[in-house]
Structures are given as structure tokens and as C-alpha cells.
Amino acid sequence: MHTEASVDSAQPLPGDFAIWIFIFAELVVFGVLFGAYAFARSTHVELFNASQLTLNRAYGFANTLILVTSSYFVARATQSIKAGRGTACGNWLAAALGLGGMFLVLKLVEFHQDFAQGISLSTNLFYMFYLALTFFHFMHVVMGMAILAVVTYKAYAGRYSAANHTGVETGGSYWHMVDLVWIILFALVYVIH
């Protein structure tokens, strides 16, 4: 039995509800892709293990640290705007954007090295999944950075406040989804044997 107090104490999702529908849809797509990867891996264990060893885990780990740190910065931006500190919010978001850019550069370097070694979508089943999944995620980082850039601009322009910060939460929620997907992707593709 629900009481009025328990209903009033329920926390709404941060940001605009529409972003949560989009995030859910994105997570379903990634979940299906991860499931397909896991199934393919279970039927080609030796191929996947051998191919996985050729990946640059240092790049993958560095990119994991970069995205986790950027998510922390986005969380700090949200805390700042809730406290009415718009400039601090913008600064945290700008730092998160900088880290997003670092992620993209490092991933491009990794892609370049992969292609220089002759790795392509048609090399084998593992590399097809690796390139498809990481490029699909790469494009989500690009989209997340575009969203954060707009939110950062608005933060510096004074369009958010302690009372009106839904846009910051909305952009932040998407960015956290991008980070979460990378953590799962890193574990599946780079680490788990």
C-alpha cells in the first residue's frame, strides 16, 4: 500500500523524460549487439581470444579512465548548477568536453594502428564486432559531445539556474549512458577471455 509520503519522496528521473526513452532505446540496441558478440564469442572462443590479444589494452584502459573522469566532471557540473553556480557548471562541462575530445583522439590513433596492421571488418568475426561496436560507440561520443557543447554554451550564457537546470541533467544523463556503455564494451572486448 502506497502512502502519500512515499509517493512524495519518490525521486523523478533527472533531466527531460524524453531523454530517458532515447537512452532506453540506445541501451536496448547496445544490449542486442553485446548479446550477439557474446553468442559469437561462445562459438569461436579460440579466434576471439587470439584476436583480442592483439588489441591495445593500454589505449582501452586510458579511454576508460578518460570517460569515467569526464562523467565525474559532468556530475560536478550538475551539482554546481543546482547550487546556482553557472560559471562553475560551464567550467566542469568544458573540462568534460576536453576529455571527450581526448577519448576521440586516442580512439582515432587506435583505429589508425588497427588499419595499419591490416585489420578491417572483413579480417575475421572478432574484428568485425570490435570495429563495429567501438565505431558505433565512437559516434555516440561525438553525439554526446555535441549535446554537452550546447549545454556548456547555455551554462555560460546564464540560461540555467538552481531552479532551472533540466537541460544540464538531460545532457548529463546521456553522457553517463555513453560512459556506462564504454565500461561494458571495454570489459567485453578488451578484457574478458
TrEMBL record:
TM region(s), chain numbering: 17-39, 60-78, 90-109, 129-153, 173-192
Topological type in the membrane: Multi-pass membrane protein
Keyword check for Nucleotide-binding: no
GO biological process, one term: aerobic electron transport chain
Keywords: Membrane, Transmembrane, Transmembrane helix
GO function terms (MF aspect): cytochrome-c oxidase activity
CDD domains for the chain: NorE_like
PROSITE patterns for the chain: COX3
Organism domain of life: Bacteria
Pfam families from the UniProt entry: COX3
Subcellular locations according to the entry: Cell membrane; Membrane
Domain (Heme-copper oxidase subunit III family profile): residue spans on this chain: 17-193
Any one GO CC term of the record: plasma membrane
Family: Belongs to the cytochrome c oxidase subunit 3 family.
Protein known as: Nitric oxide reductase activation protein NorE
Organism: Sulfuriferula multivorans
Lineage: Bacteria, Pseudomonadati, Pseudomonadota, Betaproteobacteria, Nitrosomonadales
